[in-house]
Design brief:
284 residues; alpha+beta; two-stranded antiparallel sheet; 7 helices
Length: 284
Amino acid sequence: MSKRIPKIDGPKLSPFRGSLENVEFLKVLGPGLDPSGSSTDWVPHSHVFLVRINGKRYSLKVFNFFSIDELLPFYPGAEHLFTDDLVRYHLDPFYAECRVFGLLIQKKKDDALAVRCHGYAMLPQKIEKQIRDRFGIDGWNRQPDDAGTPLRAILKDYIRFKTACGRKKLPAMRSNLRKLNGMGIFNMDIKEDNYRGGRLFDFSIALTPPHVWLWPSVRSRAEILEDCAEDEKVFDRMAKQINKRREEAEAEAGARWTEGIGGRVPALRLHTLSKRNGRVSKSR
């Protein structure tokens, strides 16, 4: 497997260079809950697993399949522009991520501006069976046209942090997002759940040029500019929520400390250095 994908103009991702022969599945990392909270028909873009390959841990993101009809947008007057290849390679979550990471790796920015990516992989039947037997995950929303097609996956660094920011400051995260946008990568799904340790790791609905949603022949200039500005606007709302929670947590911790000493703050003894004898004396 040596082909770079997708097979269309634009950025392309190379295959994973290692061997999956001895991959060990450790646990499921995602996808989490249905964002609508209620739909029984909800199909996640993917399932993410913590795996170990030759002693190193990776996040293995395995993508569901989607038919052209499921991906096809409703845009009256532009139907003739949406060829099957265009819909598949621009709007399918697997190829959306291939395009993003292909560009980031090409520019040597994947580890700087997002999670490091190690390429894509087509998983053999024995690995699909391993997932089914271990986790009970099966089907993968395969359509009749997908019969016999191997599961598609992308390997990324495993981020150990459990929080969105980790040790990274919000201004640095915003700066990285602006740089991504400056490269032409628009995430379109900025939220805490898509960050770990200050790094963006999910790009399954990202827009990376050339992209049909960025074509003036399909959408108005105002719509395109609105999408291009969306990431930073949403990030600012997210940052505001994070800061508010931090402030509330600090206030609650302070209140608990005060209650723990009976509501009284002990008088502080100030230590001053005696100039006359060079010893520390206590002044009340």
